[in-house]
Amino acid sequence: MSELVTGEAVALELRPAKLPSRSLAVLIDLAVAWTVYLLVTLGVLASTASLDDAAMAAVAVAGFVLILVGGPIAVETLSHGRSLGKLACGLRVVRDDGGPIRFRHALVRGAVGVVEILLTFGVVACIASLVSARGRRLGDVFAGTLVVRERVPTVQAAFVPPPPPWLAGRFSGLDLSGVPEGLWLAIRQYLSRMGQLDPQVGWAMAQRLAGDLVECTGAPAPYGVPPAAYLAAVVHERQARDARRAFGGGGSFAPSGAGVAFAPSGAGGALGGDAGPGTSRGTAGSGGSAHFPVSPGSPDTPAPPAPPAPFVSPGHSAQPGAADGPGGESSPPATGFVPPA
Fold it and tell me: How far are the Cα atoms of 161, 166, 167, 274 from residue 283, in angstroms, in the given order?
């Protein structure tokens, strides 16, 4: 991966094309160009058989320059860096700042390519590409261009467990603008692999990542919340913001596997479950399993859930006995209706 900086000081991560893919693209382009050149030459010779030797040589040179030199330049200019061979191999020629090439870039590449590809049978181009860190030949160096890969193999994203329900939405006011992408990547990798780690190693890693995240956000982590659960909740909040920014609206965002059920922590911040101290806990639903490591020595007993608030019908008082009539029976609500005398 190569990091290019645009004129607006934006860093672009592009994957430069290496010698094998570039060689295959050049071979395809040369095969097409030579086929067209031979067909055009045979047609011109058949139609100009009455010309003398000097005229025939001038026609041959003109055909060579127009087809083998001007053809690639015109194709790269009109297609913005995608010839037939590069299209087949998933490559594209771009400027050093990541922008599309113009006629002058294609002209310099084509003129230098006559020497380093056609006249030397590609030896100079191969040596220059092997020496260059980004696989550039001399034409790319003089023109200020780079050949990059457009088709990058996709990798299936690892499953990141959702946070406990009692932490969802708790960090909606957290400032995440100062968190670098490298830290986000490290947190996602940890959350997707924490079930494979040793409990103590996973706990220490979660504490270190949570500390780095607290330093970047400037807000302390809530007391009693396990570091892994804190990381999962903050990642969930960032995904929700990205979803709202991409699709608009103010609706809530639930990642895949949001049906996982978690028990809230007890006095020591350990998630409830049947496992003993120092082991991973958490119950998984149909959306997948998620185990948050807990601190060794955390208490086993989870905090009981809070009782639901009593329902108060309209016209009743929330204080017990306030609207009770004689005998402990509740009186009907006042309607303002007065019966006739």
Answer: 12, 15, 16, 9
- pLDDT value of residue 159: 67
Total-model pTM: 0.46
CA-only gyration radius of the chain, Å: 35
Q: How far is 341 from 190, CA to CA, in rounded Å?
A: 79
- The number of angstroms, rounded, from the C-alpha of 60 to the middle of its chain's C-alpha atoms is 52
Q: Which two tokens stand for residue 62?
A: 């003109």
**158 touches 189 (CB < 8 A):** yes
What DSSP string runs through 269-292? SPPPSSS-TTSEE---BTTB---E
Q: CA 223, CA 9: separation in Å to the nearest integer?
A: 40
Q: What is the pLDDT of residues 298-341, one digit of tens each?
A: 544 344 444 444 444 444 444 444 444 444 444 444 445 455 54
Identify the residue whose tokens are 């467990």.
Answer: 161
The residue behind tokens 């007993």 is 301
pLDDT at 158: 59
Q: Where are the beta strands (DSSP E) in 135-255?
A: 145-149
Residue percentage of the chain with pLDDT more than 90: 18
Contact 163, 236 (CB under 8 A): yes
Count Cβ atoms within 10 A of the Cβ of residue 314 and give its class: 0-12 exposed, 13-18 middle, 19 or more buried. Answer: exposed
